[in-house]
């Protein structure tokens, strides 16, 4: 994306979990927005092939947030569109998702952007530089600083003083 640009994606909810629509290979897929996952774009095996994933011969194994193990083949997606932003040659892995979503996007895909999540407005804003959508003011928004770690994103908290 240009150094000063932004794009917006509507957020829908699957239960309490936020989902966004991502266009891959010209087809729109509903993906879980999982900022705790060290993922780029992880797709269900039935979705990866039709989405144009080129298998690399690699694989990975991990556990989900509930401790369930999973393994999947590594692939490269030629093109992935997030709103107005087009990302090319996105590395990903197969992921066994629910019937209602085709996979997930994680913090590694969103790392190049400032990420603003407007839950009341049901939108995800991805911004480069200081750019923001017209009329969007983040005055009064909660800011959560975090850092990337090998296990995912981490932030400091204070409990009971």
What features would you highlight for this structure?
single chain; 161 residues; mainly beta; six-stranded mixed β-barrel; two-stranded antiparallel sheet; 2 helices
Q: What would you say this structure looks like, in words?
A:
- The protein is mainly beta and 161 residues long.
- It has 2 helices and 12 strands, in the order ββββαββββαββββ.
- It has helices at 45-48, 107-110; strands at residues 6-14, 17-24, 27-34, 41-43, 54-63, 69-82, 85-94, 103-106, 114-118, 123-127, 147-149, 152-154.
- The protein has a 6-stranded mixed barrel. A two-stranded antiparallel sheet has the order 11-12.
- The radius of gyration is 16 Å and the shape is globular.
- It starts with 5 loop residues before the first strand and ends in a 7-residue tail after the last strand.
- The mean pLDDT is 88.
Low-confidence parts: none
**Rg result:** 16 Å
Structural class by sheet pairing and helices: mainly beta
Looking at the structure, what is the overall shape? Answer: globular
User: How far is the first residue's CA from the last residue's CA?
Assistant: 42 Å
Spatial order of strands in the largest sheet: 2-3-8-4-7-6
Main beta-sheet annotation: 6 strands, mixed, barrel
Secondary-structure element pattern, one letter each: EEEEHEEEEHEEEE
Oligomer: single chain
- Mean pLDDT equals 88
Instruction: Please report which band the strand proportion falls in: under 5%, 5-15%, 15-25%, 25-35%, 35-45% or over 45%.
Output: over 45%
What is the tally of beta strands?
A: 12
Helix content: under 10%
Number of helices: 2
